[in-house]
Amino acid sequence: MDNLDLTVLRALRDWRLAGQPALLATVVRTWGSSPRPVGSIMALAGSGAVVGSVSGGCIEDDLIARYTRADAQDAIGPGGPPQFAKYGVTADEAYRFGLPCGGTLEVLLEFDPDAQSLVELVEALDAGRLVRRRVRLADGGVTLARTHVPDELQVDEHELVNTFGPGYRMLLIGAGQLGEYLATMALFNGFTVTVCDPREEYRGAWSVKGATIDEGMPDDVVLAFKPDRRSCVLALTHDPKLDDLALLEAIKTEAFYVGAIGSRRNNALRRQRMIEHFEQTEESLKNLRGPIGIYIGSKTPPEIAVSIMAEVLAVKNGVALPRDLDVAYVKDMQGIALSDAGAPVCSLS
Predict the structure, then answer these.
(1) Which of 167, 184, 232, 329 is buried deepest, with most CB atoms within 10 A?
(2) Helix H segments across 143-199?
């Protein structure tokens, strides 16, 4: 499953290549509570087809009515400069458009974006490149430039600058049951998923479509995967011969999340092994997470997958989780022993 931005841009590209009128809506400002964050995009074809969203559906309905009705004087036409539209300014509008109390958002509408520019943008994203897109507000002219920093959206009276990147990627070490649940959740959250497991008996039972299976050794697979700032690496096998190999390579990269399943005791032993036998230090291991996941009392593989996916998404989105959701902290406060005796196979304790 592609990330949402890429899905929107592909649809918009195809409509414009086919000669259809279309517009691109981008959330550029929000005040108070808003249904979608700044940078969210939506494409609207002259036929009324919509891909993506800028709200929970209410503003989309207004844009469809405003720009695609046969009798609409301001229907999507042959280009023209971008326009701003603000929703939820008054209490009545907030009620009409279904915005949260006090919520206001502003969108920029680009009419008939250039097809060739969209082709180039999608090709760059498919190739794994990060692209900065500049839109001149005077005439809608677009320039594209490669970048290495995923900047926040910027807009002023002259231009809109938005950065688009390739989809987020997840590398899972271990094709067991937990990996299947986690891969499924990652896929519908827009991640590209690769699963590494040199054990044939686990690979043979894999049943999640859409994930790439790699039978190589974990350290080689991590090196080939080349984790970047939009990548995460999770070790799920409980086998140090596999997990440790992957983690030792992953912690050297820019991956935004690197961690391993296991109890507090197992994670403490892992860190000790890496320091004593693999020349690691507390500093080099500072970004190694474990036990991974947030504390929700999870015991079964699907519950643990929910716990892990929630933490991955929080880190991806730059959200600092409260200490009460930290597994190790909660277990310590509850006075739960570090012994693994009697613990479930996938326990996060």
Answers:
(1) 232
(2) 177-188
Answer whether 0.90 is exceeded by the pTM. no
How many Å apart are CA 19 and CA 14, to the nearest integer?
A: 9
Length of the chain, in residues? 349
Q: Write the CB contacts of 163 (distance below 8 Å, at least 6 apart in sequence).
A: 130, 131, 132, 133, 147, 149, 150, 151, 152, 153
CB 279 within 8 A of CB 248: no
pLDDT in tens, the chain (349 residues): 457 898 999 999 999 999 999 999 999 998 776 677 899 999 999 999 999 999 877 788 889 988 886 554 456 656 689 999 998 756 666 666 666 655 788 999 999 999 999 999 999 988 878 899 999 999 999 999 998 877 889 999 999 999 998 778 999 999 999 999 999 999 988 898 999 999 999 999 999 998 999 999 999 999 999 998 889 999 999 999 999 999 999 999 999 999 999 999 999 999 999 999 999 999 999 999 999 999 999 989 999 999 999 999 999 989 998 888 888 878 888 876 554 433 333 444 3
| Domains of the chain, first to last | 4-164 (no CATH), 169-334 (3.40.50.720)
Q: Per the structure block, which two tokens stand in for 300?
A: 């079964």
